Amino acid sequence: MAAGRQRWSTQIVAGSDLTPGVLLLRYRRHSGGEEQMAPTLGATKATAGATSAAVKRRRRLERGHMPRPQSTAFEMSNKNKELMNDIFTNCKLKNGFGPTVQASAAATSPTKRPLSPDHPNPALPITETPSPAMNRMGWALRILLVADNSSCLKDRKVSGKLIRKCAPGTELVDWLVNLSPIVHTRAQAAGMWQALVEEGVLAHVNKEQPFKDKCFLYRFRLDEEGGTAAAGVPQAEDLGAANEHIREGLSALFQRGPDATLRMILRKPSHERTSEELELVFEELVHIAALSHLSTSIKRELSSIFVFEAHAQAGTILFNQGDEGRSWYILLKGSVDVVIHGKGTVATLKTGDDFGKLALINDAPRAATIVLKENNCHLLRVDKEHFNRILRDVEANTLRLQEHGKDVLVLERVAKQRGQHSAFKYTVMSGTPAKMLEHLLETRLGQSVGGMDPFLDDFLLTHIVFMPVVQLVDELANYFHCDAHEDAQTPEDREYIINFKKRVIQFMQKWVMAVRHAAFEEPSVCDFIEDLAAEVEADPDLNEETSIVHNVLTQMARYQEDRNQNAGQKWKLPPNGQPICLFSGNATPSKTVIRPDDDIIFRVYCADHTYCTLRFPMHTTAELIKACAADKLQLNRGPEDLVLVEVKSNGERSVFKDNDVSIPTGLSLNGRLFVSVKDHLDALTQLQEQEGPTEGVDIDLEILSTKELAYHITLFEWDLFWAVHEYELLYHTFGRHHFGKITANLDVFLRRFNEVQYWIVTELVSTPSLSKRVGLVRKFIKLAAYCKEYQNLNAFFAVVMGLSNMAVSRLQQTWEKIPSKFRKIFQEFEALIDPSRNHRAYRVFVGKLQPPLIPFMPLLLKDMTFAHEGNKTSLDGLVNFEKMHMMAQTMRTIRFCRSRSLGLEPPSPKSEGEVRSYISSFRVIDNQRVLTAMSQKVEPTRKL
Ligand code: CMP
């Protein structure tokens, strides 16, 4: 019984089963409990004199002599009135024959219970047929019983009805106690008889009671069946054989007694279990490995609700994949196969293993079918209501699912988010891509109506890291066509398959919801959606899904239309500022997303500063650009000798990898692209124009309304932010060359941050007049305040960082003239951008804001990098999904920020057109050395 290590019974160390063995008797610690279970008829043997009587009996047994009947029922009644009262007053009622059966008793009458394992009945056998050993033991006991006490097993009339060859439990116990010295207590004897009941060798005459040391009547199977064995007084040779058998096998029956008693208790409804019985169960639960992590009080609670289930036949299905989870199981004996649709048997669970809590904890359908691998499997079961009450919140933290001996999914218990109806659930920590997808489709779709399951959302946002789109589409198509190879389908199979198809459709819908147009950019996805739509329309069982599919198709068509309109979009990279869209079919050109096949026009220089102008799709690799530029610039070198390199305004060089894409947008503000011989990188110098604007600004900033500036900066940046796809953060973090995907929209948005920051510095250090500089500083502090008010935190950071730049902060004369009110505000702003404690001040502040808002993008990228560099992508061959979750959280921040459209109240316009064109491209110096030198020039360092 004990799953894992020990047996229920520890009394005897003897041969197993019904084989002869040495009897070494050891008393159970809870023998007191057994005493109480026994009825009051001098049930326990008097210890004094017992040994000599036992020795005599044993000798008789060994010699093949029948013991003389110890007492008749009548004599016994004289000895013990209580027992007889019990017989006469209760027997009729309890046997269920009498007319006086009470309604309440009838309601809980075992016969009313279905015989399915859902409601096990301890009066019934747990095997289909008795084992040969138990059969023989029953035969031998019966022979001896009849020979010993012919009046015990007789026809009896109960409530006018004749019951053939039956005996009261008490007499059977009396006889067995006297039969062998190994049987010390009545409870032990009762357990031994119950072991026979369990196998159907003995049964309550009305199949309503397990074995009880009471007046209930029991009958041997042999007598039920009739036949020769049942008839008459035993022959001498039978007697000899029976004696021999008992001598050899009784110890094994004795050993089975406690187990049988426990199984009997565990098959009773909890309210029928006495406190002694619960104590017995509790003591056994202590030895079950699957419960070792639970506290004593929980094990005590479990003692009353554990149900024992026995299944006779290998091949029995305990539950099916997709079923509602109703119970948790521990395997006590035997083994089960874990079978998954389309995969077959993925694992075999053995004695001591537990299964089935995944569906309970996650309120999800069963992830696998459980099929018994052997005959006569024994299980302990906890039903859902009890599981939820007792175990759900204390269940083990980690759950590992294996297939073919290897971990495929590791789940961990986490606190549920608010709004979900229970406190805890398992979430995926790591897994193989395919198993994670299966887990999603099997258990996370098709039930919840509300919002997106976080695991599903994480998966959809990050799968490109571990499962390329083409593979995902393939897997989904396989799932959708899971019926392709199954000819004959039962209605249940069909229902399962239809449900599964529905889940694939739902997955598709959620995918499109989560990643929007990124899904439609993949031809394999579009083909899949179209195939799916055709199949859904052709299948009447999927009628309800047609609207979902049509909706997705409409979105796809809209995207494709938009794409066609904007086909041939062209961009130009100016010497300064943002790439300019030269052509776009978009009605609102500002909201133009840069697409991989958009062309961009840009220059590539060589060491002598001659250049060529190229036009390439955005997704063109550095290798191709390099080769083409070398050709145009007539470098006459093979591609292996050349590199494509950015020279920054400060002369720094940064070489591109051959497989890098979206090169032009990835340049720094005043950076320039060069093609160079590998060994001559040192010869590359920056161009004069990279220093920054030579002529002064052609607009008087002073006269522009600060609020209007902030407003238009925010509108402009909102559009840039809007164009960034969450995936670009992944490409940026893992390296776009890994995906062959462009990060152009993110590049542009980040470039804008630097542009604003350096614009502030450039403006201040190129303003020679002190009073004008003071006016500008005040204006920029106000600008920061407006950006904050408009929740454009990206621009807010850029402005405040610009004002904190060393070239500006050193302008002592300027700062001295700034009114203290402004200085104080600025200090508060500086505190907000303070990077200490991982930007805590900003995080707290932004955490309170509602969308729409423009976040400080560099911090989101820092979070992504932190998650990437601090965590491996793969753990022991499994995808580290915790890392994916961390990254998805950051990606979700972006989604949250844009979850409401920007509807700012426009300030009363003064010079709208002028402001708009001014803020769309600032002319900046981004060379810190130059900026510091200019700062020195306008305010030379005071000599002390
Ligand atoms: P549940 O989904 O409740 O029901 C089926 C059970 O099979 C599941 O919980 C796990 O406890 C168990 N199981 C064991 N191995 C696997 C596996 N590889 N995939 C799915 N379920 C498994």
Automatic annotation (TrEMBL):
Q: Which PANTHER family match?
A: EXCHANGE PROTEIN DIRECTLY ACTIVATED BY CAMP, ISOFORM E, GUANINE NUCLEOTIDE EXCHANGE FACTOR
Q: Which Gene3D superfamilies match?
A: 1.10.8.1240, Jelly Rolls, Phosphatidylinositol 3-kinase Catalytic Subunit, Chain A, domain 1, Ras guanine-nucleotide exchange factors catalytic domain, Son of sevenless (SoS) protein Chain: S domain 1, Winged helix-like DNA-binding domain superfamily/Winged helix DNA-binding domain
Top-rank lineage group of the source organism: Eukaryota
Taxonomic lineage of the native organism: Eukaryota, Metazoa, Ecdysozoa, Arthropoda, Hexapoda
- UniProt record similarity statement: Belongs to the RAPGEF2 family.
According to the entry, every stretch annotated as the DEP domain falls at: 147-222
Ras-GEF domain: which residues?
Answer: 705-941
Q: Where is this region: Disordered?
A: 102-122
Alphabetical UniProt keywords: Guanine-nucleotide releasing factor
Q: Which InterPro entries match?
A: cNMP-bd_dom, cNMP-bd_dom_sf, DEP_dom, RA_dom, Ras-like_GEF, Ras-like_Gua-exchang_fac_N, Ras_G-nucl-exch_fac_CS, Ras_GEF_dom_sf
All residue ranges annotated as the Cyclic nucleotide-binding domain in the record: 290-391
Polar residues: bias regions: 102-111
Q: What is this protein called?
A: Rap guanine nucleotide exchange factor 4
Q: Which ranges carry the N-terminal Ras-GEF domain?
A: 424-557
Q: Which residues form the Ras-associating domain?
A: 598-680
